[in-house]
Amino acid sequence: MLQRPVESTQYASRLFRQRLWRYRMQQSMSRRGNCWDNSPMERLFRSLKSEWVPSTGYLTAQEAQRDINHYLMHRYNWIRPHQFNDGLPPAVAEEKLNPLSGMG
Prior knowledge:
Number of strands: 0
GO biological process, one term: DNA integration
Domain Integrase catalytic: 24-90
Largest sheet: none
Distance between the termini: 38 Å
Protein name: Transposase
Helix content: 40-55%
Structural class: mainly alpha
InterPro entries: Integrase_cat-core, RNaseH-like_sf, RNaseH_sf, Transposase_IS3/IS150/IS904
GO molecular function: nucleic acid binding
């Protein structure tokens, strides 16, 4: 289960944390006052939802997994340009850096 708290004390309360523990759920919270901790993932999810996932959704979990995996591993990493990488897809930008670092 994903719960998106907006820096609210109810999600940090003892009762809420005890219930998470009881159901063996792990809480993930940003540092206090830092709403940017998760911004890279938020941006990825926005791109995924707006560019790839059909508005009607998927018929099966397997179909969703296969299609989203294709988007992430092929289109997002190898084809889609990223402003941060001077317009290069992440995998291409990394390939360009590897010879410089001696890791490629």
